[in-house]
Amino acid sequence: MYYLNHSKTEKEIVESSKEILIKNNFKDIKTVSELHPGDRIFFVNKNRNIFAAVIGEDPITTGLRVVAAHADSPRIDLKQNPLYENSGFAYLKTHYYGGIRKYQWATIPLAMHGLIVKSNGDKINITYGEDETEPTLMITDLPPHLSQAQDERKLKEGITGEELNIMVGSIPYSNENISEKIKLNVLNILNEKYGIKEIDFTTSELEFVPAFKARSMGFDSSMVASYGQDDKVCSYTALRGILNLRNPKKTAICVLTDREEVGFMGVSGMESRIFETFILEILEKRNENSPNALNKAFSNSKALSADVDAAQDPNYPDVFDKYNSSKLGHGVCIVKYGGARGKSGSSESPAEFVAEVKKIFDENNISYHSSELGKVDKGGGGTIALTLANRGMEVLDCGVPILCMHSPYEICSKYDIYQAYRAYEAFYKG
Ligand code: MN
Ligand code: MN
Q1: Which of 22, 109, 178, 234 is the most exposed place for a label (fewest CB within 10 A)?
Q2: What is the DSSP string of 103-126?
Q3: Per residue in 156-188, pLDDT tens?
């Protein structure tokens, strides 16, 4: 819960994970010239994703043991020209990131996280609205007294993308004979606090996330409720799992990637060649590099795509196949295939590999169950599994069942979180 509260965005996850790794004797790969079995290293890419490794006894070309999770979560980003004034209020225009149910994001406290790069290159890191002494920021909604027309809309249009405007001020700037005084007042406050001008929004990455804190859930305290557990619950357990490794046989790799929620693209996404760059650097520093060493390493590798799965919600039984849905409190779920409408877009794990993973879990007394995401033809989804399969690795989806996925406050079972930690640790070793 500490990790969830202090790492709400991908960049913050990189920072807090790096801190944890350094405390556990992992070194930046750039600072070492040779690698030996037992060495612990990490690699940060553009401050947006991080890979960690413990070097194994066997050659890299005999394959890696990879556990890959993603550090980004659905949220609300700002548009490039966000600030405007309308009828007595200043607002920020937004463009949401990842799949959200838009109506869930109004009338909740929001905090602003991210960075602004000024024209002189100065980078300003911002966290605003997390501290209870700081003001919060919000998207408004209609009262039920006036929502008659809005209530007739389809739920997915209850609040539209263009209505997700964040209210940020209401006091006009004084002694100034100009229009848009409220907007000016907000700009003035931001200028005093961060030294920025309006144009600097065009070189910013400001992400709005729920200002809630993670909490235990249920009278029995059996669950965790928090923003961003997709996929920080797997990021954290994958990271914790690799910390315990001493002298593994195969080189173990923990991947915390970015941009999963928008299709893995971009310089910090898993479709980027940066993962190859990292493995090539390991090959180079292990003195193993040769023209086909990378492909050999990949094709002999085994991976878990560590991501959450939509668990059966008894309140909404229509969309879940109760015989095949993941369930909270039953340990990690193994998802052989994802996709939608006839397994479309799924890399599907070969049965032989599923058996191999199950054997590791059985030998280590790890609770697991096999599942798929919802009923056939009700929807679906995918993970970065296919990007690892494309590289020639055997890969299986294995993660923590989750309720209210992609909502501002998601629910996981503490038991499952602990099983995930043990499962990933065992897989790195196996
Ligand atoms: Mn996910
Ligand atoms: Mn997701």
Answers
A1: 178
A2: GGGSSS-EEEEEEEE-TTS-EEEE
A3: 999 999 999 999 999 999 877 889 999 999 999
Sign of CA dihedral 193, 198, 203, 204: positive
Torsion angle in degrees (nearest 10) through CA of 287, 291, 295, 296 = -60
Where are the chain's structural domains?
2-73+227-429, 75-210
Q: Are 297 and 63 in contact (CB under 8 A)?
A: yes
User: Is there a common fold for 2-73+227-429 and 75-210?
Assistant: no
Query: How far does the centroid of ligand 1 lie from the alpha carbon of residue 68, in Å?
Result: 11
Beta-strand relationship, 204-210 and 380-381:
unpaired
The rounded Å distance from CA 205 to ligand 1 centre is 21
Q: How buried is residue 155: exposed, middle or buried, by Cβ count under 10 Å (0-12/13-18/19+)? A: exposed
Q: Which ligand is nearest to the CA of 68?
A: 1
User: How many angstroms separate the most distant Cα atoms in the chain?
Assistant: 75
What are 58's two structure tokens?
């066997």
Ligand 1 centroid to 337 CA: how many Å?
14
DSSP class of residue 162 equals G
Cα(332) to ligand 1 centroid in Å equals 14
Residue recorded with tokens 């989750």: 402
pLDDT (tens digit per residue) in 183-205: 999 999 999 999 999 999 999 99
Q: Could you tell me the two tokens for 12?
A: 């913050």
- C-alpha 62 – ligand 1 centre gap (Å): 29
Q: What is the pTM of this model?
A: 0.97
CATH 3.40.630.10 fits 2-73+227-429, yes or no: yes
What does the CA dihedral 337, 339, 340, 342 come to, rounded to 10 degrees? Answer: -50
The CATH number corresponding to 75-210 among 2.30.250.10, 3.30.70.260, 3.10.580.10, 3.40.50.300 equals: 2.30.250.10
C-alpha 71/C-alpha 11 separation (Å) is 8
How far does the centroid of ligand 2 lie from the alpha carbon of residue 308, in Å?
A: 8
The rounded distance, in Å, linking the Cα atoms of 29 and 44 is 9
Q: Identify which of 206, 189, 170 has the alpha carbon closest to the alpha carbon of residue 86.
A: 170
